[in-house]
Task: structure prediction
Amino acid sequence: MQLKRARLKGAVAALLAASLPAAARADGAAPTQVDASMLYYGEKGRTTVLEPNVRVTRLFGVQALLYGQAGYDAITGASPTGAAPATGVQTTTTASGSTITSTTGQVPTQKFSDRRWVGELGGRVPLGLGFALGAAGHVSRERDYRSTGGTATLTLECMQKLTTFSAGGGVNHDQVNPIGGTPFGLGTGELTGAAVNDKTVTSAQVGVSRILTRRWMVAVNANRDRETGYLTEPYKVLSVVDPATGTPTALQLKEKRPDERDRRDALVSSVYHLTNNVLYTSYRYYWDDWGLRSSTFDLKYRVNLGDHAYVQPHVRYYTQNAATFYRAELVQGDPLPAFASSDERLGVLHTTTFGLTYGWPVRKGPGQVFVRAEYLRQTGSKGLSDVQSFGGGPEARLGTEAATAVVGPVTSIARPPLGIGTVLLGYSTSF
Result:
């Protein structure tokens, strides 16, 4: 289901990407590395994900390698519809006749379940004179979303291998086929007639890393992504409120986003090896032409316990402003904006993450096991003053025809904080 993809991909990719490749590099003498993991992801009262993942890496000499990776997601739970939270009992009747009931202070959600399969194949080959070329291709399938893409990266080691430059790019072709059809943006549920909607993502990245001392390495990376095509979440809605009372009317409209997005970010990271332990720090700044700006601070401290065991605390803080077209709700009688979304991921957002990883070698057997547990607390806008005012867009007036039946007072003044927990169990071995 497309509704939760951005958040899940961020959490899953961050956990797995940080763990599996590192294990594959752990023992250069062993030509074959096998990494397996099981991820549990849970949002309090919302989405639950179970994801097994297997990666096999084969080394050829010092620099050449080939790897294959396969994963499966089982996703269940409920996702916010975009409607305003309730201060009383709120019952919404959908066009299909089913009902959704929310209690006081609860964000209206819609239950869903989905399955996702993903596979990736890639490798790296040395080209001589310090150059190496890496490439990968992937495919992902779920009920309402398909993705196929590839990447390539060229690296250069120079200055006695103390400095590494990299440059690369990629192309992704996605297809969005919403269950029940594609609705018109800012409509009451009428369908466009399109069963499949195309989306293309092109990306480019450059970077440099430098070993400054025997213990310290720093890196700077810059990325740019260009998205075009269908970028709207087809299941999200916006409440339409009465201008006099501030409570929602019976009308809910589907969201609508621009069909282009230019995303950029810059990352500065550092690894410092103390006498026994290792300190990892990074800062990432992100901006795009939707008006989003964000900062991410990340800190990890690995404590080596001896006999290849270790423990690693983790702290991360993330903050962003709202997109220019983010609206907590629309006001009845005001002109419709050109674009509008009440998706909390496009609003004011702050998250704080605390985590701990413990790894240890398998007793009387090959390989290493690690367990990572993290808790993320997400908070957002506390009121309409945190987002831009209503209005703008075409001179179209909101009508009074209801797409749903709503009973009970509701308000969007506050959206409750969200707690997200993840547990990752992994195993690595080489032979």
